[in-house]
Amino acid sequence: MGLTTAMYTALSGINVNQSRIETIGNNLANVNTTAFKGSRTLFQTQFSQLMSAGNAPSETSGGVNPTQSGLGAVVATTQRIFTPGSIETTGIASDLAVEGNGFFVVRRPNGQQVFTRDGAFTVTPDNRLVTRDGSYVQGFTIDPNFVVQPGALSDLTIPLGTLSIARATQNVRMDGDLSALEPLATQFAETTSAALVDGGGGQAGANTPLADLRAASAPGTALFADGNTIRVSGVAKGDRELTTQTFVVGTDGSTLGDFASWLQTRLGIQTGPDLPGTPGVTIENGQLVIRSNPGYPNAIAIETSDITSDNAGGTVPFSFSQTTTLPASGAYTTFTAYDSLGTPVQINTSYVLDSIAPTGPVWRFYAETPNPSGGSIALGTGTISFDNNGNFLSATGTQLSIDRSATGAITPLVFNMDFSGLHGLSTRDSGITLGDQDGFQPGTLANYSVGSDGVITGAFTNGLTRTLGQVALATFPNPEGLIAEQGNYYVVGPNTGAPVISAPGQFNAGTILSGALELSNVDVSREFIGLISSSAAFQASSRVITVSRDLLDQLLLVVR
Q1: With a threshold of 0.85, does the pTM exceed it?
Q2: Which CATH homologous superfamily contains domain 169-184+330-438?
């Protein structure tokens, strides 16, 4: 019996070492498999034959230890080792590596949730982030404001070349100098038309119908008829020319007062109790009087040929004379803002020295847009105060609002003007320019990157960056309980514990390295040593079988 037992005991040694060699072979076969986790085979004794339990110590004996005979070895377990592998940089944005604990969460096309450390992902034509076999990488999506919504997992999408966004301007910062040497803006440009009368020869007033309006020099011919178009073109304001505007008699207004009000809005003349002078377009003593806001940048110069009509009886209805001209002073600049659709909106701002206060000079700015969606090109006015050292002190009227109701964009477009970068020293000339503004025209997603926290950030052609989603990681109480499947995937096993799915860096999850892949954690040198020791143990067990056979042969010879 003893020799037979020895042979079976040695056979168990062959079997366990064969299993270990199989494990080592699998490790070496996957030494270049992305994020592969090697395994080790652990042995334990199979049976132990008890021949004597021994005796306890007594007065006459020191005790006898048990007598046992081992009956071989068995495989205790094949344990997967989840130590991290080395990191290889690839420069490919879709390649991701986990640094620390955690697994990428993947949804197979059949809906099964699996896990992997292999981050060799790609972006499909339908913009989804997938593994090499087409399974969908899971993460947290964003709301319409590009804010990550943690919670339920979804397929991650990176819409390269298809997603376009814009951003409305919210803040505008101006830079430059407003010289304290500028003259005070106390003069107003004034233009007056020739005398106008009605059909009865009486002095024209605000209630005079346009269809009954006539020049005093030619009272027999009406200047307009219902349906006529009055075209205002070529009007100068400071050193710039205002855009062409049209007024339809009977549609946009029917009286001279209606036309005066319309013309005031189209010229951008701003009125109010806090503004100096009496700016506006009025009818005085049968004449159309145009008074601009103070200062040269606001001075309106209108000539007779600037207002025309398609009425055959009077193609040039008004004759104008400039009664006041202003010397060049002040400052003017233009810049572009953007509405919520990314449509550019031109903003013109002019600056004139309003007053000299004990605390320092006070400037007034006037803002307008040449192509309004509503009626008036004027946007607003405010003051800019400097201290006695020329430093910015304060500003009023800095929030501007533009009607965008006829454009499809969010209306109104509201933004703030920041003048804190201006100075009020006695420079030779005043000069002001746009420092920056935070609006953007439409741009298309051109590139992306993944941060260590798993947040996917997209870069658009207009310079904007936006969050596109966040890669999720899963951690387990016992990752060694995961069941490996083909394709570098793992599924939850009975002894794994419930997965904890979170953002990278939270709840013991590791972080993400973008443009990199994790290599296998197989140590080739250690595997070769294990291969040598397993081979030697295999041979030793086979020797036991050979010796047992030889002894049995000798025993049979005794019988002969």
Answers
A1: no
A2: Flagellar hook protein FlgE (2.60.98.20)
